[in-house]
Amino acid sequence: MSSSDHDEPPQASRPSDGRPERVRPRRLEPDTLAYLQEVNASFLENLKDGDVETSRMLLWNVLEEIAPRVASAASDRHACEFIEVLVDHMSAQQLRFFLHKMEGYFSHLWTNRYSSHVLQRLLSKVGTIVGNEVKGEADDDDDPDRAADVPPMSSLIVAMCSEVQAEWLTLINDVSASHVMRAVFCALAGRAPVLEKRGKKGKHKALQFQSAQTTAESTSVPREFEDTLSEMLELVLGSSDGRLVELMSDAHAGPVLSMAVRVAPSAVQSKVIFKLLKWNDPERSSQRFYDFAADSVASHFLEAVCHSCDEDVWAAIFERCLQGRLLEFSEHPISNFVVQNFIQRTPTSDLAETVLDELQGALWSLLSSHRAGVIWRLAELCERFKLREKSFFLALVAAIEKLEAAKPEVARRDVVSALIGLQLSNNQNSRLTLNVPGARIVETLLKFPGDVSVPLVQSILKLNSLQLVALAKDSTGSRCLVEPIWASDNQDAKLALFEKLQGQFGSLVLDRNGSFTVLKCFDVVSVAEKVIYINIYIFLISVRLRLPRNYPPWMESWRVVTLRRWCSRIATCTSSSRTAKSGCRRMSEKRRSKNCFPTLWTTKRQRRSASTTKKMEKSQKKKQKPTNKLWAMYSSVSSNSSDSRVSAKPLLQ
């Protein structure tokens, strides 16, 4: 957008740090801000009503109204939030129209803390639009008259990069522009940025390419995109070696170079890697890798290299820079993450043997330096290539025993307890402290053959009931230690775990994670035991599964899903529905008896005062009606079933 499009002449900011004079838009008028706020509320109402046509026309009206002030609105602290909402729902033509009206102000928009988020959100939608343009497919021609003079999206992106070409070297380490440059790299490479997770107090959600999806499909891009990306990277790589080292350690420029390695074409990618590592000089490249691995920012560049390069480049870097020094790198508080990524990315079994030869004998050193993450990756390596599973397990057990031997005999722990470092809290929430890498090690070792996994299962079952209940309620503990036992074929271990958890089902069934363990326990026990426990579960679901005051949003859906799961279990649990029905009726008649649920209620009532007990009895009488409703639903399904096993479908409806 030219400067004449604005109601008032634009302002020029003072040049600083050698940057050219930057043109910035005027401050947004209060009337325009009030208009955007009103339109945003109306637009959201139309979305709720499902009125697509009205929403489309409203977006066009807004774009035409703020067209002379698009850059001002995007740069405003309050208006940028409304603009981002509108950008999320714009069509391809509307996005092109919106970006076209920003021309002339991109230098300011990249560096502004508010408009940079608007640009990132817009760039996240570029891939599909450009891909359709390359394929020759027409975009959504919802209003061709308004977008008649607007260039294609690919031309707009190239023009935007050309407009800030003189500032590429200064924008790369700008706190706001660096995020935009990462999104531009993704768009030029045909990769879609994804939302980076932020805390609950984060006002904006910056866009960042998801590093784990290195094999994700990319959209087609024109030749101009590849040339622009190569030109930008060559300009950066043309800097002096000292300047490149500074950029690699910079908190803003370092992630940009890491992004370039992830998304660049293979030819450009190799050039970036070899240039930054000084690959032509073996001694300097090894030292450069060593320095980068110990840096909190540059180490992420090495991780990006590990996950994005081909097998030949990976092997060359490993043999020159890592082989023979894995333990030294692993003991460092930062470079150990680089080692973990290289172990995870090991491409062949021969290289896996090389890694295990070097680190399997150093497990005690890794445990002593609290590097359980490296051991976890080694266990994954053994499981992935089916190498040295038993010898690795024995070496790990020997290392743990050596580490525990230095403690007093009373304080010594077995394998699982030493790895997970479980500590229960003293408060009523039963929160626990858990070593997550250690739990991951146990989870991986449980995938080993039976002669290795059986001792681990026995070690898990040695934990007391309170510890097992706390693990079942914890997301990491249940996934890594409890669920593998239920998923195994070891029926003895399942029954032993069930016996350990008996008497704790009342607290487990009301927990978001623990309810899954109760369902697994219910599936394991015999038919006779299921009949006994049906009445307890009916009582818990219908009476105790109540929403507390100020409950979180997820609890309502979780309560409904849990109720349906238990209704399904109750309807299909027994081969004699008549026996189950009569047993449940007898227990339902006694539900107000003190001895009806001894494992759930007796100990709690003994700790309560007489007044509290009366309040509980009154509350229990009020909650009697849902119990009868659930029993009526169960009785109707049981009586109408001709088969001994009752279908769960009517209950789910």
Automatic annotation (TrEMBL):
<protein>
    <recommendedName>
        <fullName>PUM-HD domain-containing protein</fullName>
    </recommendedName>
</protein>
<dbReference type="GO" id="GO:0000447">
    <property type="term" value="P:endonucleolytic cleavage in ITS1 to separate SSU-rRNA from 5.8S rRNA and LSU-rRNA from tricistronic rRNA transcript (SSU-rRNA, 5.8S rRNA, LSU-rRNA)"/>
</dbReference>
<keyword id="KW-0677">Repeat</keyword>
<feature type="region of interest" description="Disordered">
    <location>
        <begin position="604"/>
        <end position="653"/>
    </location>
</feature>
<dbReference type="InterPro" id="IPR011989">
    <property type="entry name" value="ARM-like"/>
</dbReference>
<dbReference type="GO" id="GO:0000056">
    <property type="term" value="P:ribosomal small subunit export from nucleus"/>
</dbReference>
<feature type="compositionally biased region" description="Low complexity">
    <location>
        <begin position="635"/>
        <end position="647"/>
    </location>
</feature>
<dbReference type="GO" id="GO:0003723">
    <property type="term" value="F:RNA binding"/>
</dbReference>
<dbReference type="InterPro" id="IPR016024">
    <property type="entry name" value="ARM-type_fold"/>
</dbReference>
<dbReference type="GO" id="GO:0030688">
    <property type="term" value="C:preribosome, small subunit precursor"/>
</dbReference>
<dbReference type="GO" id="GO:0000472">
    <property type="term" value="P:endonucleolytic cleavage to generate mature 5'-end of SSU-rRNA from (SSU-rRNA, 5.8S rRNA, LSU-rRNA)"/>
</dbReference>
<dbReference type="InterPro" id="IPR001313">
    <property type="entry name" value="Pumilio_RNA-bd_rpt"/>
</dbReference>
<dbReference type="Pfam" id="PF22493">
    <property type="entry name" value="PUF_NOP9"/>
</dbReference>
<feature type="compositionally biased region" description="Basic and acidic residues">
    <location>
        <begin position="16"/>
        <end position="27"/>
    </location>
</feature>
<dbReference type="GO" id="GO:0005730">
    <property type="term" value="C:nucleolus"/>
</dbReference>
<dbReference type="InterPro" id="IPR040000">
    <property type="entry name" value="NOP9"/>
</dbReference>
<feature type="region of interest" description="Disordered">
    <location>
        <begin position="1"/>
        <end position="27"/>
    </location>
</feature>
<dbReference type="GO" id="GO:0030686">
    <property type="term" value="C:90S preribosome"/>
</dbReference>
<dbReference type="GO" id="GO:0000480">
    <property type="term" value="P:endonucleolytic cleavage in 5'-ETS of tricistronic rRNA transcript (SSU-rRNA, 5.8S rRNA, LSU-rRNA)"/>
</dbReference>
